[in-house]
Write a structure and sequence with these properties.
- The structure holds 2 protein chains of 2 kinds.
- By secondary structure, chain A is mainly α.
- Helices cover 71% and strands 2% of the residues of chain A.
- In chain A, strand 1 and strand 2 form a beta hairpin.
- The longest helix of chain A is centred in the C-terminal third of the chain and has 21 residues.
- Chain A is globular.
- Chain B has a two-stranded antiparallel sheet.
- In chain B, helix 3 packs across helix 5, helix 3 packs across helix 6 and helix 5 packs antiparallel against helix 6.
- Chain B starts with a helix and ends with a helix.
- The chains are: A mainly alpha, B mainly alpha.
């Protein structure tokens, strides 16, 4: 079946169908969101919302020259994660709208049981990571995003600056203060 | 920095969610397909009817209108292309009506003891409603034309 959704310009400057962008980035974005929220179901909701927003707002992306699509989708994911942590009951707006308007039927929880169990097993096997992730959650959101992108996702300072739309100097300063706060948290623990 | 090294060497969980990825992919790439596809299904008959209306009611004699009409007349006479007009002017608009009706209608049913409960939900989405109306209009105009031609011949 042909992809009707318009093409987008990739980080290499080449036109790429949205389906290809989705296939290329889904794994990385899911990993990023899962490592931030440490919950399979919440990660599924946030990732769905991220890609749905990216798909619906492609015209906005095409007018933002100089921002690679990878950074733009990471930015949407980061904003969604921030919303998730700010709101007591996170509600993926576009996903809810899609369910109401287009009759979208989310996958039944039991069909994803094997994936959920594997994700939880992975988390349980990484006690050090989980300890750091829990301390990270106690820090303000700007520090959380910068530290997670740097140490969980191994992104460069320049990439983080693009994703968060902040100058590199600000990222370096957030990182340095964030690491200090994290160290403080680890000592207290 | 000790913490910095520790963080750099942190062993992170690697997760994959291929089932969720596949499910979401289908949804994302199908969301606006019905409306987008329908535009192409009714574009030619709508343009043709527009041309005919312009010529009949407003007396507009543009060259493009005649060329368009001649093209369809020649297709109708051609032994290889006879099927194209019924397809363009009847089957595809009818398909548009069916596709958009399916996109707008949601029917659920549940069993409550001996009773079978049906719930019919109609969602009003501008593009689907517009395309459904256009498709229906084309089908009705073509049917009206066929009936009038048929009775005219008899008289």
């Amino acid at each position: 079946m042909p992809v009707i959704i318009p093409n987008t310009e990739s980080s290499t400057g080449q036109t790429e169908p949205f389906g290809a962008v989705y296939d290329r980035l889904y794994g990385a974005i899911f990993g990023y969101v899962f490592r931030r929220v440490a919950n399979y179901d919440r990660a599924c909701d946030i990732v769905s919302e991220t890609f749905l927003k990216a798909c619906l707002k492609q015209s906005a992306f095409q007018s933002r020259q100089g921002v690679p699509i990878d950074a733009w989708i990471y930015r949407i994911a980061t904003n969604e994660i921030n919303q998730f942590f700010r709101q007591r009951h996170y509600e993926p707006v576009s996903l809810t709208q899609l369910t109401e308007d287009a009759g979208y039927d989310p996958p039944a929880p039991e069909t994803l049981e094997a994936e959920r169990a594997e994700a939880e097993r992975q988390l349980a096997q990484h006690a050090d990571f989980l300890a750091v992730q829990r301390i990270l959650l106690t820090l303000p959101l700007p520090y959380q995003a910068v530290l997670a992108l740097r140490y969980f996702e191994q992104k460069s300072i320049a990439d983080i600056a693009l994703i968060l739309n902040k100058p590199e100097g600000t990222i370096k300063s957030l990182l340095s203060r964030g690491v200090a706060k994290l160290r403080q948290g680890m000592v207290i623990k | 920095m000790e913490s910095d090294d520790f963080l750099h060497n942190l062993n992170r969980p690697e997760v994959a969610a291929p089932q969720h990825q596949q499910h979401l992919r289908m949804t994302l790439l199908n969301t606006r397909k019905t409306a987008a596809l329908s535009v192409w299904l009714v574009a030619v008959p709508c343009f043709f009817l527009f041309c005919v209306a312009m010529k009949t009611y407003f007396g507009l004699n543009a060259h493009i209108l005649d060329t368009f009409a001649e093209l369809f007349q020649s297709l109708d006479r051609s032994p290889q292309g006879w099927w194209l007009n019924p397809l363009l002017f009847f089957v595809l608009p009818l398909l548009t009506v069916a596709l958009n009706l399916l996109a707008l209608l949601h029917i659920d049913y549940s069993r409550n003891g001996p009773k079978l409960l049906f719930r019919v939900q109609l969602t009003l989405k501008f593009w689907n409603v517009l395309l459904l109306t256009l498709g229906l209009f084309v089908v009705l105009v073509v049917l009206g034309y066929l009936f009038s031609e048929h009775f005219q011949q008899r008289l």
